[in-house]
Structure formats: structure tokens, C-alpha cells
Amino acid sequence: MKAIGIDIGGTAIKGAIIDTNGTFLVKEKINTDITIGREGILQALFTIIDRLLAHAAALPSDATAQHEVTDTAQHEATDTAQHEASDTTQHEASDTAQLAGIGIGSAGRINPITGEVVYATANLPGWQGTNIKTIIEEKYGLPCHVDNDANVALLGELWLGPQHHFKNAIMLTLGTGVGGANIINGQLVTGAHCQSGEWGHVVLVPNGHPCNCGKKGCIEQYLSGTALVRQANEAVNQANALVRQANEAVGPTSTQYTHGQQVFVDSAMHEVVDTYLDYLALVIYNMTVAIDPDAIIIGGGVIDSKHIWWPQLITKLATYEVATPIIPAALGNQAGVAGASKLVFDAHTQNA
Question: How many C-beta neighbours within 10 Å does residue 29 have?
Fold first, then answer.
């Protein structure tokens, strides 16, 4: 059995055909900008599904080799005929017979039953109110299952990652924004208003930095990659201003100016990272008290630089006496795609 898994991200839409063993048979990726709005996102989504369906028709039933396709101009040209055909009869049995369905992970608060985006911030203009499930099922005639992107990332990690034995886990994703997910007793927790696990919009600093959700001081404004870049820029600008003031007073040589500037900037950057990790350690500690999970998995783009700051984070967590394992995500940017396909397999098993 195979399924299509899709991960709608801030800079790209990733997709794959995956079998029940977790083998990636085909991968696709389209670079995009979610600020293009609802129709642009949907068109990119249709394009990547069309490509995957074209590949699905050519896959043997026992396919095990991965065929990875990159998003190049040459690929765009060779796919033109396939895209045109897929808008007619190509979505019938010949393309879909091997597929159990399409799973999609998307940012925003998702109702996993209806497949509707019940809330989305200004980062996703026009996305709120979009019923992804209905749109995809009507266009392709395949079952579609939709959930929040962090939820499916946690599903993917617990399915294919080394932490598959955990029944209670939290996912915290530190990327363009901050996402999160909770699994309790082996089940994703959605909550009464489809916002369980929205750790990014828990208030960390009362009356703090304005968030695009309308509140102030949200975790997202202090722990996202976007926030880290903002804080670094602010610190560098402040350090440079202090150096200029000092040098105007004493009139140094160019070499002295450059050295002094570098010292101030290095000190400022160290302080930014230290404060960032103070906040991250506090958030993790509060999670362990609130949920008491088997593990907390940290993912997202910020984790790519963990070799620089991870030991310092562990040291800070020790001051809180955190006993819960804190684990970097193992699947990288493929966790969401894997988890989205797992939505399909789980639903198929439940309905069998």
C-alpha cells in the first residue's frame, strides 16, 4: 500500500509517495511563497500532486527504489504534457489504484475531521476557512486526510524515527514560526478548538513583542528562527552604535575601531544566544510539568545549528532538574511528509 504525503511549508511544498514500510519511493518539492495567498498555494499544491500521480502510475507494485525529482526548469518542461493530461482522465484508476489516499500537513489550526483551516495568521493570507480535504477529494477522487504541520511532523518522527516507542511526546518546531504537537497515550491531541499543541502562541513575556496572532509576548516572538534573526540584528545595530559613540569620543585609528566593533558585536551575539536558550529552557521545563511526556522532540530550521548551542541548552535544563529526554528531530524536513502519509495509513487501518 502507498500514500501521497504533502507538507505545506513557508518556503516550499514538499511531497512524496511512501509505502507502509516508510520507504520514500518518489520525492517532489516546489519552492513557493505562502504569502501569495490561497489560490497560489492551491495551484502549487495541485501541481505537486499531479506530478506525484504521474509517477504513481509508473511505479511497479513492489517498487522499493527511491526516485527523487528536483524542481528544475528541465523538469518543469518535461512535465508539461503530464500536467495537461492529469487535468482530464489521468486521475482515474490507472493513476490512483495503488494509492490509499493523500495526507496533508498545513500550518494553521486544522480541524482533522472536516479538513478545514479554522484559523490562520496573516502569514497565510486567505488560508483561513479553506477546506483542504473537500477541495482535494473533489479534484482527485482519493481520500484526503489533513492535520496541522507540527502534528504530522510528530507522527512522522514517532513512526520512522528512533523514538518510535514513545507513547507520550511533545514536538516543538522552531522555524519561521514556532509550532507544536502533543501525543498522549499514542493519540494526537487536537483539543476542543483545534489548538492543542499551539505552543508558539503561549504567552512567554507579558506585554512583550507584538505577535501576528494579535497578542503580545508569544513564544513565537522569542524562539522562532525569525525572532532569532530579529534579535541578532537589533543587538548588532545597538553594538555598532555604542562603538561609534565611543570612537567619536576618543578618535581611534581604523584598526582600533574595527577591533572594538568586533568585540562589541561578539559580546552582543553571545548575549542574544544566551537569552534565547534561557527562554527555550524555561519553555521546555514548563512543558515537562504540564504534560510529563516520555520525551520532547525539538525540530525546525533552528535545529540545524544545534552543534553550536545544544550543549549549552542541556546545561541550562539541568538547573531545572529536567529528567525528560530532550531529543533533536531525526527526520529533518521529511518528518512532515512522512507523518502526512501516516494519516492515510492510520485511517485506512481504522476503516478496514
Answer: 20
